[in-house]
Design brief:
Number of helices: 12
Largest sheet: none
Number of strands: 0
Structural class: mainly alpha
CATH architecture: Up-down Bundle
Helix content: 55-70%
Order of helices and strands: HHHHHHHHHHHH
Strand content: under 5%
Shape: globular
Number of domains: 1
CATH topology: Methane Monooxygenase Hydroxylase, Chain G, domain 1
Radius of gyration: 23 Å
Length: about 280
């Protein structure tokens, strides 16, 4: 008869009465007990976990983008590139999650939809902060967060500082022109639209990549991020349409038509538009 393997006999710690365990370090008890379905529907747990894990990944995106912005400001390009590459991989992970949620059918969702009340992913303040940090800044999107002063204050504070893309544009002009005297001011509190002066500098970069390799690499890293971000939005639209069709969203938006409108948003418009000039 084969005896049960004892990891302790090989040196593994087995007694955690007075030591930090895996669960202690990760605070797993509060994490795993933070799911509170409002109905008896089987698929509501899937819906909750999908969105909670998305919020955790978004928390990490903001952590990495914050580090990338500070690295850019201090001239630490290697660290910035590492953080941006990680952000792209996180967006890829978020995209893969939609495959799991799409196993939920319209009947599955209908069984608990009323339990959501007016709550909606539209109200995700971390998603809004990601947009604000990258440069898509719409002050109207502050309104759903007014009921939580700490959150609305954090979002408002972001609108008073240069976005990550604003810092990139500063670097672009300093490198191509040798100074920032000619750079246009990007609006801190409204969505960014393509500016001819910025696009002209990106054109100079893409037409002489050997001279401007660092900026060229940065431009492509930004394209990676927006590429994955667009896929995330598209997967969101497809999933919503598959599950609820063209019904209005629980938060009062127009649902699929609203999400499709968001597909037209460009985070780094000059980088997209310059491709037609090369």
């Amino acid at each position: 008869m084969t005896e049960a393997y004892d990891p302790g006999a090989d040196g593994a710690k087995m007694d955690f009465e007075d030591a930090m365990s895996y669960g202690d370090y990760l605070h797993l008890t509060p994490v795993l007990t933070a799911q509170h379905p409002q109905s008896s529907a089987h698929d509501e747990l899937l819906f909750i976990i999908q969105h909670q894990t998305s919020e955790l990944w978004m928390k990490l995106i903001l952590h990495e983008l914050g580090a990338a912005r500070e690295a850019l400001k201090s001239g630490d390009m290697a660290t910035m590139f590492k953080m941006l590459a990680r952000v792209s991989r996180i967006f890829e992970q978020l995209n893969n999650q939609w495959d799991v949620l799409r196993t939920m059918t319209p009947a599955d969702y209908t069984a608990f939809r009323e339990a959501l009340g007016p709550s909606s992913g539209f109200q995700s303040y971390q998603y809004r902060m990601i947009e604000f940090v990258l440069g898509n800044r719409n002050p109207n999107m502050l309104e759903p967060h007014r009921h939580v002063p700490e959150v609305s204050g954090t979002l408002e504070a972001e609108l008073t500082r240069p976005s990550f893309y604003d810092e990139v544009v500063g670097l672009l002009f300093r490198t191509v022109d040798g100074h920032e005297d000619n750079r246009p001011a990007l609006h801190l509190d409204r969505p960014h639209s393509a500016l001819p002066e910025v696009q002209a500098r990106w054109k100079a970069v893409y037409e002489d990549i050997d001279r401007y390799w660092t900026l060229y690499e940065l431009g492509e890293k930004l394209m990676d991020i927006e590429d994955y971000f667009r896929r995330w939005r598209f997967n969101h639209v497809t999933t919503v349409e598959r599950v609820i069709g063209f019904k209005r969203g629980t938060g009062g938006t127009a649902g699929v038509s609203y999400l499709r409108r968001m597909l037209d948003v460009e985070l780094f418009p000059e980088l997209w538009h310059v491709r037609g000039e090369l």
